[in-house]
Structure formats: C-alpha cells, structure tokens
Amino acid sequence: MSYSCTSRGNSQDPSSAEKPAGNNPDRDTLGTDGSDNGNPKQLAAMKVKKGCNSTDVGVPVTTEEDLLASAVITPEDVLGLQKITENYLCSPDENIYNIDFTRFKIRDMETGTVLFEITKPPSTVSAVGPAAVTSSSWRQLSVEFTVGDMPIENFRMIERHYFREKLLKSFDFEFGFCMPSSKNTCEHIYEFPPLSEISIREMILHPYETQSDSFYFVDNKLVMHNKADYSYNGGT
C-alpha cells in the first residue's frame, strides 16, 4: 500500500503541507538555531501531552460554528470538535509571529524507509512520495520551522485526524519557548495508531476522505490553522 498527501492550504501559506505526528513521549528533542552561521544548537525537551478525543471526560463538545463566532479560540475549544472543519478558524493576519514550517519528514524506524518528506526552501517546495507503508508500527517525525523577530512563549500544536466524520487520532505537542529570528528543529518517535482491517480497507477505497486539522497556539490563542487530505492508494 502507498499513500500521498495533498495540502488544502493553510491560514498562512497555501503552499505548505503536513503529515501526522505522534503522542508517545519516548523520545522528543527540540533544537533552536538562532542563525544560519553554524552556531551550536540549544537542545531542550519537547513536552508531549497525552492524545485525547472528544469522548474523554472533561472535554466539552464544540462546533465549528461556535468557534467561528468566538473572538479567541483556545486549545480546549478545538479538542471538542467532532469532525473535520470546513473553514479555516483564523486568518493569515493572526500569525503575527511569522511562524513558517519548512520541513516535515516521517521515517519508518525499523526499515529506515522515508515514508513522507516535504521541504520548503526559499525558492521551491518539493516532496518525496508516495512511498510504501510498512507493517512496522514505530515512526520518527522530524520537523523544522522558523519564527520572526518576536519571541514565542508556550508554542503548542494540536493535530486531529479524521476519516469521514470519525476521529482517528488526536496529537498534542508543546514546543515551549522559541527565540526570535530562529530556526527550530524537533524530532519525535511515536507508535503508529492501530486500525482495524475494515477501517484500513475503507480508507484505501476512499482516497482524500482521510483528513487532518492542525492548530497552532501561542499563549493559548490560535494563530495558525493547516488542513490536509490523504490518499492511501498512491493517488491513483
């Protein structure tokens, strides 16, 4: 089986795309490089919250309509969503920190196979894929992003994956503090969530009905929203 990913754009830059991360805290590192002149990187632990869904006790149900009418959208708001959003919940103007994701890479830990990779150098956007999906369950996610001239406190990402209107998995990351004008990298190893054979077959037979919302928060306020659609048949 192979897959491809198509970005539906995002609230900041329609050329970027994403692939899911994970929520197993076995290994997580965040590196910060304040410049591109070869200075040593400062490494710190990346906090990973336990993945949750709207059926968890204490998570109130929310709707897209409710959030679009809200002046401020918080992490708790999006954790209560029951299905993929149809609209973006924030505008590009709300990314006042100039956060820009420039690289995503997912690698199979057992075989070393690169399952998905997208890079965004200044002049081009390139992707590797589709690639074969192996039967092993452990994945390594590498992500790189830059920030503008303001420091970022309490940077957090929540990514929710759905097939049709069913929540498959919700991931919750805390990146912590990011220095101004810095390029940041983090690495995370996670266990691929198990799916039934029936669910896998349905996802293969219905490409691009597997979708994700990625929400980015600074100080508990939504500043970016990315969307992506996935095909598990190589796009054919």
Secondary-structure topology with pairs:
Blueprint: E1 2-10, E2 27-33, E3 42-45, E4 47-49, H1 64-68, H2 75-79, E5 100-108, E6 114-119, E7 126-128, E8 131-132, E9 138-146, E10 152-163, E11 166-178, E12 183-191, H3 197-205, E13 210-218, E14 221-231
Antiparallel strand pairs: 1-8, 1-14, 2-3, 2-12, 4-11, 5-6, 5-9, 6-7, 9-12, 10-11, 10-13, 13-14
Order of helices and strands: EEEEHHEEEEEEEEHEE
Domain count: the total is 1
Q: Label the structural class.
A: mainly beta
Distance between the termini: 12 Å
CATH architecture tag: Distorted Sandwich
CATH-defined fold name = Coagulation Factor XIII, Chain A, domain 1
Largest sheet: 7 strands, antiparallel
Rough shape? globular
Overall radius of gyration: 17 Å
Trace the largest sheet across and list its strands. Answer: 4-11-10-13-14-1-8
Total count of helical runs of at least 4 residues:
3
Low-confidence stretches: 1-7, 13-29, 35-46, 50-55, 123-135
Helix content: under 10%
**Mean pLDDT figure:** 75
Question: CATH class, please?
Answer: Mainly Beta
* Strand composition percent: 35-45%
InterPro entries: Ig_E-set, PDE6D_unc-119_myristoyl-bd, PDED_dom, PDED_dom_sf
Subcellular location: Cytoplasm, Cytoskeleton, Microtubule organizing center, Centrosome; Cytoplasm, Cytoskeleton, Spindle pole
Family: Belongs to the PDE6D/unc-119 family.
Biased composition (Polar residues): 1-15
